[in-house]
Amino acid sequence: MPYTLYGSPASYYTAKVKSYLRYKQIAFADQYATIWTYRKVIKPKTGVNFIPVVKTPEGAFLQDSTHIIDTIEKTHPERSVYPTSPKQKLAALLLELFGDEWLLLPAMHYRWSFPDENLNFVAEAFGKTAIPWLPAFLQRYIGKKVGKRFAGFVPLLGINETTKLAIENQFVQLIKALDIHFEQYDFLLGDRPSIADFSFIGPFRAHLFHDPYPKKILTKESPHLVDWIDRMWCLSDANEIKGWLVKDQVPETLNPIFNLLFQDAWPFFEESSKRLCEWLKENPEKSIPRAIGKIDFQIGETQSQRICPTYTQWMLQRPLAYYRSLSTEEQLMIDSWLNTFNAEALIKYKPACEITRINNRVARQQ
Ligand SMILES: N[C@@H](CCC(=O)N[C@@H](CS)C(=O)NCC(=O)O)C(=O)O
């Protein structure tokens, strides 16, 4: 098999890459990230303990879902997941940022805050991935231990007694909006899947429609969204791929999602970027850690604190750089669209520092 995907059925970013590979009709071996795979392949080949990892036919080992997709897009340009017209491409990059970096909140909350409904199921899934060769009772035991580590991230992400209601309210708004959207359209940008869909399928397939508690909510409240999840999971059957919507349209049914993105998520993206740039100035010799202290953030009307991630700026730089690369005329057209969400000033944010990725870690741009 030319490509190998190392990941887990319960992993957010693995689902993003798996759905993408299927859509591209690229054959791949699907390998569990077992404890041996971590020891023998993932850590030695990538230097980090993250999944998904993709081994290419040339023998390269890629980590980071966005980096994996962008690398494969170069060698497999057919069925591109990036729209080519300005508004659609910017919309896709913004939604990817939102899906990858913000939807982690509902995904983690609905997995770990409902142990009575979810814990045994999730532990089984984790255990089956970690030690598939051992009996089920041991898988459950090990799965619970692995799960404890991930559950430990929950308070760090700002998921707590103060914020949980706001996370749930926002989630209900999100799935309602998506359900209305998918009643009309097959994919986020219309008739054809884009990087935005692959980003959203991560939280929806690997957490929210995987774990029993949120799955019940989705099944009851948002049947069209569930249809999209199914569609995204079987994309290799889709031989005929349609074009992007004409005239650079972005469906208006996505407006509530862009409102959530710009009102709640964007201030957090900007704040974490500002904090990172200050940190880089204050620590010129240090390599960048995964998180740097705590920052305030807001969800709906509720305020709390969470750790400040450093990677998020790398994702934020993508739509910002794309916007800056456009002509004045294109930017004006985009500004009038962003005006709908009071976001025309936001997209002009220019971080005081740039970061890149070196050896699968974020690093200073030299
Ligand atoms: N931005 C990375 C994130 C990868 C990531 O966080 N993967 C999770 C599983 S879905 C993981 O391996 N977490 C291990 C950890 O947080 O230590 C990507 O897109 O691949």
UniProtKB/TrEMBL annotation:
UniProt keyword annotation of Transferase present: yes
A Pfam family recorded for this sequence: GST_C
Domain GST N-terminal: from-to ranges: 5-79
Key word Zinc-finger present: no
One example GO MF annotation: transferase activity
Residue ranges of every copy of the Glutathione S-transferase C-terminal domain listed in the record: 163-232
Gene3D superfamilies assigned to the protein according to its UniProt record, in alphabetical order: 1.20.1050.10, Glutaredoxin
SUPFAM superfamilies linked to this entry: GST C-terminal domain-like, Thioredoxin-like
Alphabetic keyword roster: Transferase
GO cellular component, one term: cytoplasm
Coiled coil: none
Signal peptide: none
Protein name per UniProt: Glutathione S-transferase family protein
Organism lineage string: Bacteria, Pseudomonadati, Pseudomonadota, Gammaproteobacteria, Oceanospirillales
